[in-house]
Structure formats: structure tokens, C-alpha cells
Amino acid sequence: MLTHKINRTSSEKAKPIYSPLADFIRMVYPIGKKAEQYIIQNSFHQKISRGKYLLKAGEFCSHYYYIHKGVLRAFIKEGNKEITTWINPENEITTSIRSMSRSEPSLEYIQALENSDLYAISFESLQKMYTLFPEMNIVARMLLEEYYAASEERSYISRLPSAEKRYSHFNATRPELVNRIPLKYVASYLGMSEETLSRLRGKKSM
């Protein structure tokens, strides 16, 4: 049985005085000073280099990750083929929700597409927050609504009948990623070949 292990340096183990994760949550909904201090004390900074894996299929995920800097993608493998299931840049919370909520091995790989700075908090710590700080239940509801909408968006884009419509929709809704992410990952996410995506991008630029 594989378990996702987190290696922390001595500097990461030092008692923190600040966490961008707390800032992010405060922007979602106002939280009190005690809740903020709880987040600071129970979260930690983690760096991950481009190309490295935050999580691999078969491992168990036990943390939520706030992306302070960089881009992560998730993918599944079908034989030798990688199928990108989501791409998240800065100011997103990400995890393997199926693995964490069901205590099951992950089906997805999570990989850094850029050198990334993350702030992590454990599932257990977050569950305690819901009891200790009632306002966190509002935060959770608001984030759930946002990420359910994002899931619906991914479902919608995958069902558009033509490659051109899928690319046009992605270009309109995620313009910040169009020229930032390697072509092969965007193509994989949109369910088309690199050649098709390259041709569509060429048409757009004409």
C-alpha cells in the first residue's frame, strides 16, 4: 500500500507567523483572528519543482493545497497515454478529493508544470476548523460552489462536439493559460492532438 508522504525541511518545520493560505481564505469570507492563527499554525509551505509529482496514482492524499505560485495539472493514464483532467494556476485550492474524502488510493497524478510554491493543510485540521470556527463552514460552502462550477465547466467543454469549439471556449474562459501551458497538455485537456490544436491556434492568430 502506497501512502503519499510529505517531506518537510527544517525551515518548513519552524513555527510560521504568516500563511498566504490564510489570506486566500479571508478573501473568500471574513474569518476571525483565532481562525487565522489556527490556519497559520496548522499549514506549511511546500515547494515543488517543474515536472515533479505532488501525488501519484495509487497514493493516498491527505492534504489540501493552495497554489501560491505556479501551475499544477492532474492526469490519468490509459496505457502509455496521459489524459489531462484539470489545470490549476495560482490562487486555486487543489487536492485529490476522491482519495481524501473516501480514503481511497488516488486515480490521478498531480504534477507541477512550473516551479510552484504551495501551502498545505491536512484534511484532519480542516475538519476540526469546521467545529471550532463556524465561519469556516461558510468558506467551505462558497469554495464548494466555486469548484463544483469548475467541475461542471470541465464536463461541458469535454462534450462540445468539435475541436474548434472546445479550443474557442477554452481560449475565452482560460486566456491566462493559453500561451503559458505547453501545447501538449492543453491538447490533452481538450481531447485533441497537438497537431489539431496547433492548426486551430494558427487560424486564431491570422
How would you sum up this structure, described in words?
This protein is 48% helix and 21% strand. The strands form two sheets. It has a four-stranded antiparallel β-sheet with strand order 1-8-3-6. A four-stranded antiparallel β-sheet has the order 2-7-4-5. The longest helix has 25 residues. The termini are far apart.
Identify the notable features of this structure and list them briefly.
single chain, 206 residues, alpha+beta, 10 helices, 48% helix
Q: How many helical elements?
A: 10
Determine the strand fraction and express it as a percent band.
Answer: 15-25%
Spans of at least 5 consecutive residues with low confidence: 5-14
- Tell the overall outline: elongated
The percent range for helix content is: 40-55%
Secondary structure layout plus pairing:
Blueprint (H helix, E strand, L loop, with lengths): L9 H4 L6 H9 L4 H10 E6 L4 E3 L7 E7 L2 E7 L2 E8 L4 E2 L2 H6 L6 E4 L3 E7 H10 L2 H25 L3 H11 L1 H4 L4 H8 L3 H12 L1
Antiparallel strand pairs: 1-8, 2-7, 3-6, 3-8, 4-5, 4-7
Helix pairs in contact: 2-3, 9-10
